[in-house]
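Record format v2
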Amino acid sequence: MAIDDICRAVLTYNKAQTAALVQAEIVKGTEIARILTDGLIAPLDEVGKKFSSGDIFVPEMLAAAGAVQEGLKYLSPFLAQSGAKKRGTIVIGTVSGDLHDIGKNIVAMMFEGAGFEVFDLGINVEAGRFVWAAKEKEAQIVALSALLTTTMPSMAEAVALVREKCPGMKIMVGGAPITDEFARRIGADGFSIDAPGAVDMARRFLGTVD
Amino acid sequence: MNSKERVMITMAHEKADRIPMNFRAADQIVQRLSRSLCTDYFGLLHHYRVDFREIIPPYIGPKFAKGKDGSEMDMWGVGRKEVVTDRGRDVMISISPLQDAATPEDVRKHAWPRAEWFDFSRVKQMALEFKDYSVSTPGIHIEGYHGVFHLLTYLFGMENAMTELVTNPETIKAAIEEIMKFFTAYYTRLFEAGGGLIDFLFYKDDFGGQNNLLIGRPMFREFFYSNISHLCDLAQNFGGAMILHSCGSIMKLIPDFIEAGVSVLDPIQVTASDMDIRKLKHEFGGRLTFHGGIDVQRLMPFGSIGEIRENARTTIEVLGENGGYFFSPSHRFQPDTPLENIDALYQTALECGSYR
């Protein structure tokens, strides 16, 4: 079955093949939502599980997410027209003072691979820009990253400002020095130790657990 | 007993007069500490009884042109930009010259650095000035001087390097070969010039993240094991030993490090998963010397003086049992670390680190 072939292409980290198979399915007239859910999201979920259990590592997860992104490139234009239910919008960035982005980028790729609309504000993002972007993009979730202990206070400030200016916004935080306890203390709604955990949390927040 | 003797005895898993000490900190901390103690950098090292020194051969190669976007370039062709933020300054990689390299040929065409770009003529003299200390190649104190994996992420870009390890291994291997040509020539000339006075090849690469390895063990064996093993042999041929630096949760690679010939493991990031000092000492203490172990992610910036003293005492007790431990923070102290915390740490270490 062709959808299974897309899964296999993602699971063997084959970017070109993933793109070609997605295009072939679109041409064949396969339901767009199904290509997304069964062909791209499902295998990336599997990859996420293997990452969280320590069976695969950062390179494999990035390679799989890269293949999914390549597929999404061709699928996205049709998604808007297909009337498929939007899964939610997430604004993400590394907090003010912090220039580290590998962790944030992996989380952003996994969000995209899970079908969320993602606005990545990059690194060294001031608190006010999270607020601006969350309103502008009508996001439901703001996701904040920090690697340095010196920038953890920026994370606290950003959480406080988003909380004040965007009532009802779900805020999630992550990064090497961040703990559950710190996340609670600064008033975030959630903390995840890894990217697949962040995807699960976003799904719970948005009530889109498949 | 001088520093060199102290370090060598400790590495032989015997008790010297006290635990050897090391120190590393961000520039801002070095400046503030030096000012508070009315001394300079070497005065600071002396104040904390630091037993290690490094030799840095000056760069005399071609001048680096500025990158198109104003980036500062290094000898690998990697560009960096300094960014001033509201939390201080930091540097980010802005140009990764092999970002678009798709084949081994693309990689070979890159302008790779050469050992001749360094002046080794004064190395012996520098080593003689530090003859009472334990002397290392550059990196044990100063920033930079990264290993193969680090360099791949700079040269190819972080995400791209990681992905290419999976999808384009031949191109990555070509880059590793070129990097190793430089390392082999550079370290051979450095050790030769040192005339037996250089004790350590300090090799800095990070294979671990906070929760687990960054790359799996099979990938480590395929791409990185032989480089480390080769550089361990190189150091040993000159009577030296390797200090391997790898941050993160790396418990699962330690047997490979030992097999490759690593003598000292740095920095023992105790806040990473599975990096329990008791377990480390019990399982590997007979075959490895540990360097580091003092947490800079929570303890040093946020801990109380009491917690810091307690932690220094426990770490020395556990890792320092029967030698085999060099006292050091597990990373540079960051600018948010109160100076009194650093002072309390070293005061305690010097008190408890005595074997006499």
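Chain B has a mean pLDDT of 96.
The first helix of chain B runs from residue 3 to 11.
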